[in-house]
Amino acid sequence: MIAIQNPAEWRRLCSGVLRRPDLIADPRFADNPGRVANRAALDREIAPVFAGWSRAEAIEHLDAHRIAWGRVSSVEDLSGHPALRRITAILPNGDSFALPRPA
Predict the structure, then answer these.
(1) Which terminus of the chain is more solvent-facing, meaning fewer CB atoms within 10 Å of its CB: N or C?
(2) Do the beta carbons of residue 34 and residue 28 sit within 8 Å?
């Protein structure tokens, strides 16, 4: 998930990450309302760049150019996340199992 929060980030995304400085002056994408209105067209410009990178490579490029991003996790990702603390519950028969710890 990429979050462009201001014109400077937009310029850094286009020039540094996408290597498409021509997009900065494209009237369809010149400001945030234009980018929202033309999202499908913008996605067609951005998607091929990111499709060629692994998740780690994309993060490296975004971090290098100070672009805000967030990782979208799957349920599988969340179940293995290190912040998910687990406890062991013991059944009356002595068997045990792990489950997420209550908040």
Answers:
(1) C
(2) yes
Q: What is the pLDDT of residue 102?
A: 82
pTM over 0.85? The answer is: no
Distance from the Cα of residue 19 to its chain's centroid: 19
CA dist., res. 58 & res. 50, Å (int): 7
Structure tokens at 27: 């009237």
Task: Report, as ranges of residue numbers, the positions in the chain whose pLDDT lies below 50.
Answer: none
3-state secondary structure the chain: CEECCCHHHHHHHHHHHCCCCHHHHCHHHCCHHHHHHCHHHHHHHHHHHHHCCCHHHHHHHHHHCCCEECCCCCHHHHHCCCCCCEEEEECCCCCEEEEECCC
Give the C-alpha separation, 85 to 74, whole Å: 17
Whose structure tokens read 């980018």? 35
Cβ atoms of residues 29 and 22 within 8 Å: no
